[in-house]
Amino acid sequence: MRDQIIRVKRYEKVPVILVGNKVDLESEREVSSNEGRALAEEWGCPFMETSAKSKTMVDELFAEI
């Protein structure tokens, strides 16, 4: 997925938001917030962390889209 996004963003203005989900499961995290932010910076896009279960940042994500 990463390679496809990078390839498309080279040639087209495609809106991208990098989203980390299930932020409510902190003990099962596989990617740190810092890693997510760094990757979003590399891709030149916003980074948000959400949880559908606790409704954390879900409305804000859709507003951003």
UniProtKB/TrEMBL annotation:
One of its GO terms (cellular component) is membrane. One of its GO terms (molecular function) is GTPase activity. Keywords: GTP-binding, Nucleotide-binding. GO terms for biological process: signal transduction. InterPro entries: P-loop_NTPase (IPR027417), Small_GTPase (IPR001806), Small_GTPase_Ras-type (IPR020849). Pfam families: Ras (PF00071). This is Small monomeric GTPase. It comes from Gulo gulo.
